[in-house]
Design a protein that fits this description.
This protein is α/β, with parallel strands linked by helices. It has a single domain, classed as 3-Layer(aba) Sandwich (Rossmann fold), CATH 3.40.50.620. It has six helices and five strands; from the N terminus they run βαβαβαβαβαα. A five-stranded parallel beta sheet has the order 3-2-1-4-5, with helices on both faces. Helix 4 links the parallel strand 4 and strand 5. It starts with a strand and ends with a helix. The structure holds adenosine-5'-diphosphate. Adenosine-5'-diphosphate binds next to helix 1 and strand 4.
């Protein structure tokens, strides 16, 4: 059984993340989307619990995908799940430089752990959580940027304010 972990902060999940999740779900038997609680990004817009729930709703049609929270070391999470694959999405050379380094660090901690890179699909190459947060702050329509269940939830919240 090929078990993969797709880690990130997902503040919030975007259609770019969802595209990577769908493609990973087609490659591996099981994909755990790991919301990293203690990652370096400060002052998140959504709590880790909210981000995990947003992901769970977005992947409801993918039976082999599960979202979880993790506050420890990523390599420990992968080991605990019996996962030997880390999935990362690559948008550009900046992502590559950063992720290449992270892959070496994770392999140093857990030598059996392989990082697999999936190139961003052309239509989502410029998508980021930062961009999605800007759209939310400025009350822009979100359907084009975040998964439908998340866009609907945020729209309702904005209407109730
Ligand atoms: P962001 O960089 O948007 O804040 P995260 O830190 O949550 O996102 O990233 C989680 C993973 O998703 C990383 O591997 C990142 O490179 C990847 N990723 C982010 N946005 C996209 C996208 N639009 N297409 C493909 N991969 C992406």
């Amino acid at each position: 059984m090929k078990i993969a972990v797709y880690p990130g902060s997902f503040d919030p999940i975007t259609l770019g993340h969802l595209d990577i999740i769908r493609r990973a779900a087609a490659c591996f038997d099981k994909v755990y989307v790991c919301v990293m609680v203690n990652c370096e990004k400060k002052n998140p817009m959504f709590t880790a619990q909210q981000r995990m729930e947003q992901i769970s709703r977005s992947v409801a049609d993918l039976p082999n995908v599960e979202a979880e929270l993790w506050s420890g070391l990523l390599a420990d999470y992968a080991r605990e799940k019996g996962a030997a694959i880390l999935v990362k999405g690559l948008r550009n050379a900046t992502d590559f430089d950063q992720e290449y380094q992270m892959a070496a660090i994770n392999k140093g901690i857990y030598p059996e752990l392989e990082t697999v890179f999936l190139p961003a699909s052309a239509e989502y190459q410029h998508f980021s959580s930062t961009m999605a947060r800007e759209m939310i702050r400025y009350g822009q329509p979100l359907d084009k940027y975040v998964p439908a269940p998340v866009a609907e939830e945020l729209k309702k919240q904005a209407e109730n304010k």
